[in-house]
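HUMAN: Ready with one sample?

ASSISTANT:
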Amino acid sequence: QVELVESGGGLAQPGGSLRLSCAASGFTSSSASMSWARRAPGKVVEWVSAISADGKDTYYADFVKGRFTISRDNAENTVYLQMNSLKPEDTAVYSCNTVLYGVNYWGKGTLVTVSS
């Protein structure tokens, strides 16, 4: 059974940092690219970042480029999202995602609140 579990969310001040984790189970994470997306209150889901199965290629939405860094530890079946220089508009539920054999899997998400 495929499962994605996010953690690391919380309250951060503007300009602060948080590191999100996505623990994967039920499949070999090194065989799949992984993504992070977010949903802010009252808004649609936004794609944030993606990383290739081997971790060599990373991709970012323009609004996080230069501030967020995606990485993965395939030995631990975990994907990370390091978020720096956080802004109030980064407030959202962040979820990780993968597609396996045409099926889209999502975690339940972790809430990030950026406020002073």
Q: What stands out?
A: The chain has a mean pLDDT of 95. The CA atoms of residues 30 and 75 lie 8 Å apart.
